[in-house]
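Supplementary Methods, section 5.1.

A reviewer requested that the exact input to the structure prediction be made available. We therefore reproduce it here, unchanged from the version used in the analyses.
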Amino acid sequence: MEEDKQKNTEEKNSEESFDVTGFLLESLAHWKWFVACVVVLAAVALFYCFRQTPLYEVTSAVYIQDNKSDNGNVLLESLGLSPYKNNIDNEIEVFRSKNQITAVVEALGLYKSYAWKSFMRTTPLYGNSPVEFALDSIDLRAIQSPLQVELKPLHGGKFHLEAKTHTLDGDKVMLCDQVIDGLPYELPFAGGTVQLRYTGDTIPVLEKTLLMTLSNPRSVSKAITLNLTVAFASKDATILTVIYRTPVVQEGKDFVSTLVDFYNIDAANLKNMGNEKTQEFIDSRLSSISEELAVVEAQVEAYRSHNNLIDISTEAQLYLEQTGYADGQLAELELQKSLVDYVEEFLAVPENEYMPIPVLGIDNEDFAALINEYNKSLQQRERLLLSSSESNPVVAELTRSVKTQRALLLKGIESIRKGVEIKKRDISKQDRRLEDKIKNVPVYERELSDIIRQQRIKENLYIFLLEKREENSLAKSMVVPVARIIDDPDSTNEPVSPKKVLILCAAVLLGLLIPGFVIYLRMVFYPVLKDKKTLERLTSIPILAEISRKPEGKFFVVEKKSVEPIAELFRLVRNNLQFVLTSSDKKVLAVTSSVMHEGKTFIASNMALSFAITGKRVLLIGVDIRRPRLSENFHIPNREGVTTYLSGVNTDLASLIHPSGVDPNLDVLMAGPIPPNPNELLMSKRFDQMIDYARAHYDYVILDTAPLGMVSDTFLLTRAVDIVVYVARANYTNKAAIEMLNGWIRSKRIAVPTYLILNDVNMKSKAYSYRQYGGGRYGYGYGYANQSREMLPWYKRLFKKKD
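The structure derived from this sequence is encoded token-by-token as follows.
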């Protein structure tokens, strides 16, 4: 039952999750790493912030006029169509379109940039550069790579000029790298000439190096787009918030104001496109009708002169008045039919598929409303195509709406034409009745009335077109701006980039994370034992003691009068073993480990010495016959020993035992030459006889055996020993070795009592003191009169004044 409980405890400990407490203590022990990393990264962050050119936010509010109240949409709604309204989402894209921004860049000259160069950072200039570019025969939009000029002032008014550009492959092309006498100076570039000249009439003094860059306006507009934000000021509002980030506040203010101006100019041009087409049509018709009217008037004059027609009878005059009224109605119908025919002819021309229809004053209000909505849809489609393609879903939807409206217009034309024909037939009947009544009027008078009728029709049409021309001119002059700035561009004059506090906090956080991550990786990928507490969590095997790190170059650390901490620890091991070895027949100890270099030979030798200085007879036997080490430390030849006895070469065991030369009560039996069959020798009866001899002649027998994790020799020895002392080394032994030891004990491969010793513990380290005593120290030994002062905790010693 006890074994099952022990097994469950070990399995639980072995499957334990990440050691958070150990991680925190390890981090606390290496607090200098964290401080150093935080200081270094904070310094790097501050240096980075100082090197960066600060950016400022220029903010403005822009009101966009909407046309939701347009009464012309009522007709389309009655026909089941969705009228198009000004889409603010699309206006945002128009605002941010590269064509719009490129026009602003060219207007403000932002494709030319100037800056002072200093050791730490560059300071941009806007409108106050002492030297400027003057361009001659250069197509700016054909520039493939920017021209970079560095003008460094020298003594005597001279400059060192360095001008370079790059090819499409990124190769540097040096245009100039020499000392020049002064300015102006011309450079060949992009198929033209770039002149460097002083700004203004006076010659300024350059005290710093001036950086000058000439770029393609399209490239500059792409960079500006990244720093330009246009968004709704609030939900369901037509007010936009325009935010532009720039290193120079005045440049940002000019950019936003000019951007709104260009937006209004573009919108006005699109709105006036239909008026321009109407103006062209009216002018062409006026010219044609003016010629026709002149011909008709000449006919009237010639007819009267030729036939001497001066007076008309009262009756004939009455009939003529009635006929004139009917003729006026026919003329009006002819006019309406002419206008409808023109609209039909206009729509039939393929080039006019997406051109606005001239508004000519058709009497049919429904048809006129259809034309008005059709023109508005075309204008909006043209505006969207400035910032997107025909594949855009919004453009495609609008195109389908235009085609639907076009079909309705064609149907409306046919309907209006039929109505006009019906009215003409009715009026013609009435006119024929009047003509019958005036059949007695002289033929001359009738002929004259025909000519006068033609004259009246031409006059009415001419007057009508003059009125429409004035109305169209008035409409062109009354275009209202679409966008209006309601909050002038302004800035808080506080830089928004770089965000120094955020970068510094990120640097501090990273400075804490990097050492922590390194410690975490060490604990995960190199899971070694740290101290006794870590060992206790992994196994229920009793731990005899922790052995501190031995002094450099010293193998035997146990001496009779030594008060060194490590000597006291070996005395503690000896006392604990005396409690374990409760009877006189229990005297054989096997010292082993998992792998080499864990200090089992060091532990076995000093443990044997600690028993010997108490007056006990102790025999130290080197049973690690594959890799014997005792001879190196005791300076005794390894020519003979355990292997020569087990193989029968020398059966006189007493002759193989040597005095240690360290203490008279300690004898040593060397391992002997390395044999070809170590397992067979250790399984022989001679090994048992050797142990029986040692039991009979010595008070304690300590075996320095081979590592358990490398060979199986030690498992063969457990039949002859009383206890096994397993040595683990701090910061070296893997935790998996302790799990293997637990498995060997559970499976009875080690059937004798087993105890642990943790070797090479650095008790002077901060990590150890934090784990064991919360930062305090504990000294082994006696007689420390000069160290009797009470050790304070670390957090108190940190603020304690020095003596």
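Residues 33 and 436 are 121 Å apart (CA to CA). These observations are discussed further in the main text.
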